[in-house]
Fold this sequence. Notes:
Blueprint: H1 2-25, H2 33-42, H3 44-55, H4 58-69, E1 77-81, H5 87-93, E2 101-106, H6 109-119, E3 126-130, E4 143-148, H7 158-168, E5 169-180, H8 194-201, E6 206-213, E7 218-225, E8 249-252, E9 255-258
Parallel strand pairs: 1-2, 1-4, 2-3, 3-9, 4-5
Antiparallel strand pairs: 5-7, 6-7, 8-9
Amino acid sequence: MIWGVVAAVAGVAALGLLLYWALVITEGVYLGPWAVQWMYDLTPGYYDRIKAITWKRDGECITQPLLQWLEGVQQPLILDVGAGTGRFAAAVLADESFDGQVWGLDASLGMLQRAWERLEPLGPRCTLIWGDADDLPFPDGTFDAIACLETLEFTPDPERTVSELMRVLRPGGVLLVTNRIGRARWFPGRTYDDDTFVDLLCAHPLQKIEIHSWNTFYDQVWARKAGEMSLAGRGGDSWKDWLLNADECETHEGIVRWIGDVV
């Protein structure tokens, strides 16, 4: 009988560890996109609290390097994929030298609603879109720069996501992505060592790649798409000018959504 009790306890412990891995460490990614979206819909406030300390250096570690890579581009149009609660957009728009627009896309409506609360006071230069990173609703070569921070390993197919990022980036445009290094072994099939990640990027036409240490969990990876960078930005255009099937969308509570999804 005692061995039966031991086996039962061991089974419960194993199940608990599995649930902890599936729901806490990997944030639902192996349960499917619906689980990731559901978990982030529930936790925008918690997300902000645990990220608050690192956000203080975003101007130095994200905005300033980005503007250097975009030097000379007038009114740059920037896309933030995996925008979350608006961290990247807030950092960029807070810089007085930035004269363009930031578009933020995320699959979690709860995170975007929190982002809208943060970004609305900063004015009309940020558009938030509820959408899928693996099927970006933009024409080829739309953006002067694209950021995808702390997001790739949570998408269903990171390689497809990178292909989509490269597709909508203009020739000569700037790509900023993060490569997970902390707890990476807990994300089998979704994380890469530096060499493998560079190979993944080099499947696309690039002129330059740089890897910089950022924090305990992520490296920053900067890349420039092959081609001549246009200095004539398009930051003055509205979202309707560059969104595919814009006539099927509308803005609801500050977020662009497909009409059938507005409730």
